[in-house]
Amino acid sequence: MFEMQVERSPQAIAVIFENTQLTYEQLNQHANQLAHMLRALGVGPNILVGICLERSLEMIVGLLGILKAGGAYVPLDPAYPLERLAFIFSDTQTPVLLTQENLINKLPPHEAQVVCLDSNWQNNTHNNKQNPINQTTADDLIYVIYTSGSTGHPKGVMIPHAGICNQLYWKQETFGLTQADKVLLNISFSFDPSVWQIFWPLCFGGQLIIARPGGYQDTAYLVKVITEHQITIFALVPSMLRVLLQQKGIENCQSLRHIICGGEALPVELIERFFAKLNLDNVLHNCYGPTEASIDTTFWTCQRGTNYAFAPIGRPITNVQIYILNENLQSVPVGESGELYIGGIGLARGYMNRPELTTEKFIFDPFSSEVKARLYKTGDLVRYLNDGNIQFLGRIDHQVKVRGFRIELEEIETILNQHPAIHQTVVIARENFPGDQRLVAYLVPHQQIPTNDELRRFLKQKLPDYMIPSSFVILEFLPLTPNGKIDRDSLPAPNQIRQAIPATKVAAQDDLELRLTEIWEKVLGIQPIGMNDNYFDLGGYSLLAVHLFTEIEKTLGQNLPLSILYQAPTIKQLADIIRQSTILASWSSLVAIQPSGTKPPLFLIHAVFGDVLSYKDLARHLGFEQPVYGLQAQGLDGKQAPYTRIEDMASHYLKEVQTLQPNGPYLLGGHSFGGVVAFEMAQQLHKQGQKVGLLTLFHSSAPAHIKQLSFSKEILTHLQTFFQTGLAYLHDKNLDKWLLNKFIGISYKFHLFFGLPFPRIYRNRYIREVNIQALKKYVPSIYPGQMTFMQIEEQVEKMETPSSKHITQLGWANLVAGELDVHYIPGTHDSILKEPNVQILSAKLKTCLEKSLTKYDEMG
Ligand code: AMP
């Protein structure tokens, strides 16, 4: 078919890759030269030739060369782990391998003769540019593509020419490709949609545009290529369509004539989004088909305003028969669900070296008079709709689709079970965002608990990236149904199981890193994440990066290009890049610690050092439904003067709080010094006539006003005592520290005066000094409302006179006119916000938050 097209348009451009291109004639001649060489190496019908190449012009020459020699190709994705490539080599025993020089040393040991397509292989051959005489028939193999297998190894699907020939003619008759059409090759050649992307244009005169390696997942790049090259035909999976529709400039992709969408269920809501953005009728098609039946077997052209939840998969293509059958292989009535069986010209010859599996999945066709006729048992549950279209309902086994990738969960489970520390495991796919399926592995270890990094490393040696679970959840036992099977529905969501950051990981060092960590944890659905963990090693992938960067933009106001993730794949590196950029210049005291959730937000005020990092664990334990914001001290940026009076801090923080929540009831809290500021904020809110839903103090002492001495008087007093008591005084009174603090204070003012940012390491120290002075000056008045006080258990036990409520509540009892609601929590002043004490604090706080909500709900 390709050679016939070469006759029709020898000088037309056949293929373009970046700045290089080949005409039909040139491509044909290169392919012929290779074919003659391969023939000399013994390649002929049904001989398998491995091809391991990055996307390039050579890839197309290689594929055509193999087919012209009469052989069948076996795509070997260079990104696959060595063990998987080694398995494919040994399963296929390919005598010849086409590759490129820089990949030779990255391949596992194999027996194949190597031809490097980027070296001058043409010189070694007879240089015959003529079409070789065709020796292939429609029943001979065209390729063997490997897909996930439940035994722990992938399985090779052997596809003959007939099915692909039928596929290409059907596409041509249905969609009528012309010489003006440009088809984008964006799918990896180890998945079968790439087959039509390559051969449909080449057999019917269109232009094949090859996306750069890695370009498939970069939506900005895709939009650029589509608009620059005026692409008319391309393919993608629904999860990719969802992200692409959010990409800036997508509305300019008006050149598109056919978008072949498939690989997983296509939600109608996404179709509506497509029409809203692109307004193109008869362009989006939902195509369905397993690898075993030569690409697409049914299709439906998407329409506007239907009542379906998911797009139907439509009707069979030419020369394909579809049956919907029950367990007894009888047809089910319209509307009833049954398993989909496929018959006709597209069926695979079977699975490579797997005769039992082939017999199990390719059954005799009970409806055909031909003895050799087979039906492929898809494992897909479907039903007929009243209008004759077929509706996809799900799977009858544990095969899943994650971002369009076909995965047998048992393959991952089998491999995980080979890890010496693992006793039992189950892997499932969960939806994190709409349309975003993630793999989660649940593990019961023997004794020693493997780390997530260790498990990822172990799996990466054997499985492609898309099969590595995003999260690993350690369980004591797997939940069972009453009849003893694993109860997959009762497996907890990964974020319900909270883990403290282990000592091996670096924790967030400042507010920016903290905020990035929160975003990463939310988007990746895993926790804990260390500052040096690599995004891609954590199971992050490019499509998800769009969510990640949308969240970063929402929370930090930073509009970063996705490509930054490749330069800076860790939180630490990303934070450094953000710090360098000028956009963060507009500094705010309000920090989104955990901004998601629909409940009224809780505002937590910084403790004496000025930052709000210490509230991270508390916010996490309060859950994703409870938004938590922190208020950090002005001056932490090293550029502004800190507030020196509690009243000024409080009114500044209130202004920032009210930009987010203009009206009460407000929920306020603070640890230690932060409690005092929260108290003052509550006072000011009362004066404004606003309601305070909750004022909670975590072990804060009421301020005891201390009369301030002027700087000179302070020095004089110190000097007097120093001369009276001698050198020991220096140490006793920490005079050295006092002097250092004074020096830091002067130095801060100096930096401010000259507009220089104050060094980060001294900022907290200076702010602490300023806050302590502010506390000494503060004279609290009696608060008319209620207060919730989080008291430390030990404090009560140690008290000799427990009746002394005044002391127990650290001086607040006389300062609160309303009820003083006291809760007892384990820990010390410094450890109540840390694991494990923080769990009790958060549990108590949750009850208080709920109580305050009901109170205000009742008040309307
Ligand atoms: P693959 O062999 O990778 O093409 O995967 C084939 C499987 O993907 C089918 O058996 C279905 O489970 C699923 N699938 C493919 N296309 C669709 C579609 N349009 N709608 C729903 N599921 C699909």
UniProtKB/TrEMBL annotation:
Record's GO cellular component terms: cytosol
SMART domains in UniProt: PKS_PP
One Pfam family of this chain: PP-binding
Gene Ontology molecular function terms on file: phosphopantetheine binding
InterPro entries noted in UniProt: AA_adenyl_dom (IPR010071), AB_hydrolase_fold (IPR029058), ACP-like_sf (IPR036736), AMP-bd_C (IPR025110), AMP-bd_C_sf (IPR045851), AMP-binding (IPR020459), AMP-binding_CS (IPR020845), AMP-dep_synth/lig_dom (IPR000873)
Names of the cofactor(s): pantetheine 4'-phosphate
Protein name: Amino acid adenylation domain-containing protein
Natural source organism: Atlanticothrix silvestris CENA357
Taxonomy of the source species: Bacteria, Bacillati, Cyanobacteriota, Cyanophyceae, Nostocales
